[in-house]
Each structure stands twice: as C-alpha cells, then as structure tokens.
Amino acid sequence: MINRLQIVRYYTKEQTEGDIYVFGEDNGIEWTCKSLELKWLDNKSRISCIPEGEYTVVVRYSKKYSRHLHITDVEGRSYILIHWGNYAGSKNPRTGKSDIQGCVMTGNKLVDINNDGILDVVASKKTFKEMMEFFPDDDQKIDLLITAKNDYPTD
Question: Containing domain of residue 7, as a range?
C-alpha cells in the first residue's frame, strides 16, 4: 500500500521542473518520475503552479484523463490534477497552448521537444500509467508533500 507522495521542485523562469516520489508503507521510495508544472505566479488560477505544502490526493475519474490523481484542499484553487501531457511553459504545437492550467504532469525525462529552448516532459502517458498502478483503490487517500530545491525566481 502506498503511504505518500512527494514532489521536489526546481523553479525556473519558464516553468517548474521536479521529481515525484512514491513512498511505500516502510517509507522507502517505491517509484519515481519527472514532473513538470507551470511557473510560480503567486498561485494565480490557471497560470501558476500551486504553493509548496501538504495536501491530500484522491483518485478521480474524468472523461479526458480516465483515472488520475486530484490534489485537494488547495487554497483558492480547484481541480488541481496529476495527469499526462507534454508542455508547460511552452506551447503545444497542435493547440498553441500549454497542456496544463495549474496541474502537474508526469514523464520519464525532460527534453526540449519543440526546439523552443524550454524543456518539455516526454513519455508522459506511459509514465502516468505506471504511476497509477500504485493506486488501485478508487477510495484511497494519499498524503502529498510539495517541497523545493530552490527559491521562486524573482526576475
């Protein structure tokens, strides 16, 4: 049974990069992947990552993402999800927009897919599917801690 999740972030001017850790009952790391979020813009809805802190995550279902993780109790925000996607800080060439609006994306590494000088997350759907295998119970609640490796950029 999975005990908790942690996202350790690294803030850049364009986006928020990070690592997601899945911890088991013995508090050992069971699995890890890369994360990608929007840059820090004071927790503004749809354009910023959420603040560092402690949250509860629940399994949720939507037509778009099927089973995914919902980060609850985010002050001033709603429907902050952990799901698949590629672009945060850069634009998806097909849609002309970011793939997220404040959520967290998973992937196995960060690469500049569209050659715009901004990193994107790759193998996101595959990585997301692997992560969701740790959460078979739709009623499961998981503790999430979000911390940072560096301060928010000031420029």
Answer: 2-148
Give the chain's domain count. 1
Ramachandran class of 125: left when φ > 0, alpha when ψ lies in -120 to 50, beta otherwise: alpha
Question: Phi-psi bin for 100: left (phi > 0), alpha (psi -120 to 50), beta?
Answer: beta
Residue 93 counted as domain residue: yes
The three-state secondary structure class of 48 is coil
Query: From CA 87, how far away is CA 79, in angstroms rounded?
Result: 18
Residue 154 lies in a domain: no
Kindly give the confidence (pLDDT) of every residue in the chain, 155 residues in length, as a single tens digit, with 9 standing for 90 and above: 777 999 999 999 999 999 999 999 888 999 999 999 999 999 999 999 999 999 999 999 989 889 999 999 999 999 999 999 999 989 999 999 999 999 999 999 999 999 999 999 999 999 999 999 999 888 789 999 999 998 887 66
